[in-house]
C-alpha cells in the first residue's frame, strides 16, 4: 500500500483566495511556561486543501454537519478532460484546470465528489446538485491516470459548516515506492 499526501501545509501567512481571512498560526502555550505546547489557529473555512459543502454557494443547501461521512471518501480516479470514458461510481479528480464545459458529463455520472483546479462556475454548478468539491490539492499529477485509488478527505465537524480544511490522502494498492508514506 502507498499513501500519498495531497494536502498543502497550513502555515502562518500562507496565500489565501483574495478577500479570505489571512492565516495566523501563533504559539499560545510553550513547554517552558505551561509544560505543554499549543498553537492558536485563525483562518477561513476554505484555507489550503479544503472541501466545499453545497451551502458554500447555495443558501439553505446542505452543510458539512448534515452530510454523511461517506460523502468524503471512496474509490476515485484522476481523469483528463479529453478522456472518452470517465468511470461511474468513483470520485473524480482533475490534474488540469477544468471548467463549466465538463458539468453535463459530471452531472450524468453523479460522483460523490470532484476535485482539482475547478473553475468557480463549475464548482457552483456541482455544489448546486449536491456534489462536494475539493480544491487546493497538490500532487494529483503523481497519481497514475486510469488507476483507481481510495481517497480520504474528511472535514472538521463544523456546525453549519460551508467548508473545511482537510488532510487529503490517496491510498494506492500495491508495493510502496520507498516507504510510500507521504510520497
From TrEMBL:
UniProt KW Transit peptide keyword: no
Enzyme class: hydrolase
Alphabetized InterPro entries for the sequence: KFase/CYL (IPR007325)
Domain of life: Bacteria
UniProt KW keywords: Hydrolase
Record-listed E.C. numbers: 3.5.1.9
GO MF, one annotated term: arylformamidase activity
Protein name as catalogued: Kynurenine formamidase
Gene: kynB_2
Amino acid at each position: 500500500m502507498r499513501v500519498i499526501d495531497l494536502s498543502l501545509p497550513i502555515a502562518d501567512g500562507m496565500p489565501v483566495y483574495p478577500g479570505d481571512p489571512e492565516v495566523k498560526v501563533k504559539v499560545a502555550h510553550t513547554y517552558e511556561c505551561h509544560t505543554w505546547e499549543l498553537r492558536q489557529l485563525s483562518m477561513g473555512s476554505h484555507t489550503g486543501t479544503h472541501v466545499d459543502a453545497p451551502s458554500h454557494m447555495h443558501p439553505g443547501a446542505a452543510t458539512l454537519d448534515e452530510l454523511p461521512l461517506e460523502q468524503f471518501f471512496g474509490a476515485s480516479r484522476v481523469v483528463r478532460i479529453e478522456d472518452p470514458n470517465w468511470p461511474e461510481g468513483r470520485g473524480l479528480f482533475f490534474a488540469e484546470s477544468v471548467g463549466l464545459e465538463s458539468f453535463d458529463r459530471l452531472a450524468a455520472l453523479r460522483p460523490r465528489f470532484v476535485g482539482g483546479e475547478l473553475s468557480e462556475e463549475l464548482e457552483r454548478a456541482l455544489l448546486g446538485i449536491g456534489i462536494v468539491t475539493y480544491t487546493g490539492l497538490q500532487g494529483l499529477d503523481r497519481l497514475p491516470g486510469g488507476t483507481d485509488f481510495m481517497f480520504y478527505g474528511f472535514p472538521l465537524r463544523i456546525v453549519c459548516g460551508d467548508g473545511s480544511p482537510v488532510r487529503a490522502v490517496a491510498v494506492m494498492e500495491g508495493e510502496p515506492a520507498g516507504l510510500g508514506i507521504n510520497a
